[in-house]
From TrEMBL:
It is a multi-pass membrane protein. It comes from the Eukaryota. The chain crosses the membrane at residues 52-69, 78-99. This is Signal peptidase complex subunit 2. InterPro entries: Spc2/SPCS2. The keyword Transmembrane applies. It comes from Arabidopsis thaliana.
Length: 193
């Protein structure tokens, strides 16, 4: 019986290589996503779907250019059009990443029953050669009248990871939930006493 308890406990442990800052950021980002969605926010995947669609079109353009039934000297104009379309579509995809997505790890819809009409944009940063993890929660539509103030925290990852690279989820959940609560309270109207 005790073996089963320790076996199930070790399966749920989230462990990471402490020398790999990308793996650390990925682990923390996945945990943040789990925490925010567990609080009732539903993930908004529309931007991801647009990127998938755009990527599919780019692949089709490349395949058509590669397997067009005429040989090179005859299909020169067609290839130039395909290459131009490929470059334009790839530039549009990069523009979406640069302008809209930035460091975002999660886009959400507004909470059901909430007075706000905007969801959340959760973004994070973990600079190379640094242990400072910055988590930011912002409104998905900052120009909206119901948009809340942006909140963030910056803390060392050593507060949540043991020397063996195991994530202490309780501490991390507490910090992230406090940030989500701070965002929701900042967006609520103040009650008069």
């Amino acid at each position: 019986m005790e073996e089963k308890k320790t076996e199930s406990a070790t399966k749920n442990v989230k462990k990471v290589n402490l020398l790999d800052h990308i793996a650390i950021k990925h682990l923390l980002d996945e945990s943040v996503s789990d925490i925010v969605t567990s609080r009732g926010y539903k993930e908004d995947v529309r931007l991801s779907n647009v990127k998938f669609l755009l990527g599919g079109i780019i692949i089709v353009v490349a395949l058509v250019a590669q397997f067009y039934n005429k040989k090179f000297p005859e299909n020169r104009d067609f290839l130039i059009c395909c290459i131009g379309l490929y470059v334009v579509l790839t530039a549009v995809m990069q523009l979406i990443l640069y302008i809209k997505e930035k460091n975002a790890i999660l886009f959400t819809y507004p909470l059901e029953g909430s007075f706000t009409s905007t969801g959340l944009v959760v973004s994070s940063k973990l600079p190379r050669f640094s242990d400072q993890y910055t988590l930011t929660i912002d409104s998905a539509d900052p120009q909206s009248i119901s948009a809340g103030k942006s909140v963030q925290f910056t803390k060392s990852v050593t507060q949540w990871l043991t020397k063996d690279g195991v994530l202490v989820e309780g501490l991390f959940w507490k910090d992230v939930e406090a940030l989500v609560k701070e965002y929701t309270e900042a967006g609520e109207p103040k009650k008069k006493r």
